[in-house]
Amino acid sequence: MKIQYLFILIPLFFAACSTSPETQKENGKGEPEFYLFDDVEHIDSVEAALPGEPEDIKDTVKQRTEEIKQQDLDTADKKYDKYIIQLGAFSSKERAESFIRENQDKISYLMTIVRKQQNNLYYVQIPPFQNRADAESVRNTLWKIIAFKDAFIVTE
Q1: In the chain, how long is the greatest CA-to-CA distance?
Q2: Which of 5, 38, 78, 83 falls between 20 and 30 A from 14, CA-CA?
Q3: Is 60 helix (H, G, I), strand (E, B) or coil?
């Protein structure tokens, strides 16, 4: 009985696992399927594409990348006049004032309250910066203080 099952199962297994023209017809286009394997290790395309002086190429690519980043920062700085670090948003003026009283001695920047009419919230902010790099630097320093871990930059 077991041998009979083997004679049935083995041909069935090979028939099911074959790559025949029927498989290509199943996808409806009559084209062979395409498989992409992404377990290939990362290859530095610049080094692989341009043989020769890899250090010079790497330096050139790195320098150009830095130039592009600086251009992006300059362009972003031109889009906005001010970069403001927002430290908190409160539903009442009293809560915003309480936040300032508790935390003003932790930083050297003067915290101010700004009320926005569209959402009726009171925002605690520090004075604006002229460029994003300065604002990000100060924000990153503020993140180290627990009371300001949610600080972020808004633009105007």
Answers
A1: 89
A2: 38
A3: helix
Q: Which residue from 16, 149, 2, 7 is spatially nearest to 85, judged by alpha carbons?
A: 149
pLDDT of residue 80: 61
For domain 83-155, is the CATH number 3.60.21.10? no
Residue type, 15: A
Inter-residue contact 154 to 132 (CB < 8 Å): no
